[in-house]
Specification:
By secondary structure, the protein is of the alpha+beta class. Among the domains are: 70 residues, MutS, DNA mismatch repair protein, domain I, CATH 3.40.1170; 63 residues, DNA polymerase, domain 1, CATH 1.10.150.20; 160 residues, 2-Layer Sandwich (Dna Ligase, domain 1). It contains 17 helices and 14 strands. 32% of the residues are buried.
Amino acid sequence: MRLFPAEERRKILAIDSKSFYASVEAIEAGLNPLTAVLVVMSTAENAGKGLILAASPMAKKLFGISNVSRAYEVPVNDPRLVIKEPRMNYYIAVNKRVNDIFRAYVADEDLHIYSIDESFLDVTDSWTYLCSQYGADLTLKKLARIIQQRLRQEIGLYLSVGVGDNLTMAKLALDLEAKGAHDLFAEWHFEDVPKKLWPIKNLDQVWSIGSRTAKRLHRLGLMSMRDLALADPTTLQAEFGVKGEALFALAWGIDRSRITEKHGVKQRSLSNGQVLPRNYQDPLEIKNVIREMAEQIAARLRAEHLISGQVTLTLGGSWQNSTSVRGQFGLSPTNQTSKLVVAFETIFEQIYQGQSIRNIYVAAQKVQANKREQLDLFVDYRQDDKQKRLDQVVDMLRKQYGVTAIIKSNSLGAGGTMLSRAGLVGGHRGGNAYG
């Protein structure tokens, strides 16, 4: 059965480093990543009782540990179990080595780094070259095996590889088959969709379909991917809007996007969140943390030559009271620290009701390139220029000497967390990038 013969067929590899953090730590300890009984566990105070960031396949099998388990669920006294602190900078360095190897098979524009442990390679345009290197009888499966063996030999990692006619097909092959296959490989083409994709009934297992979307599909009577494929597209569009069209295309394995297009995608938002070291209830302490986080967002916007026209603040409750409150504020697009701080503080004054706060999330939205600033009759541009120059000096000093080169007084006061978080990456200990 040849579905949609007019659809372009590219040669895409979706590659996942199996249990990446745990594998990196196992390799560093001289252990086999597949047989080591190891977890990467954060014990930082602001993570409560500790989070499991990664578990080796054997640890998952023996103890039922997952990447969302808490420390109290881990048999820390079991002599078989190896526990490692996270070293985010080191994982980033290893990830760079992995993707540098991938660049031996594709041009940079045909490599999409999806996450720290997953990448997409479009080898369509480099296929002639690859055949000249590895033989005219080269297949995608042979190429996948070459890459798997090279990563195993040079770094020690085991890779799962999904191959498909497009990005979506490769991702489905990776998630739904390759990760559980004995040889960690799967290859899907349009012809495979009816027998491999359509029988799936756990819709939220399928990439891009979350639990909420799955429930909405169930309410429409769509209980499997086959049901979704045979559904009326107009009904899906009425229920989900543009996403309905994407869901219908997903059920048929259709994806016309290119990796080369993804390099030009504009970033729509920047965000930053943290779990506080304890419950905060004093408004001054909470505002000090919000100011610090606003400064970080502003610095990131400037570093990427972006400006934001809307900010969002979310305050999460304590462990005992998990409710959260959220507010938004629109402003003339800017990346100035002082303006963004005022915007976030304005939201805080509107939404905070005196409750205990344990986590804070800030986001800069409606982000666009900082080409030229729109004139505003109510702005004192002489003062505005002073603020811009001040931000530039702070950015320059922190880039050269580190984030703690300049610490504002509020960060030294009650509740400030910038100093304690200066060595963290993604909320966890950075460690040494070289091991």
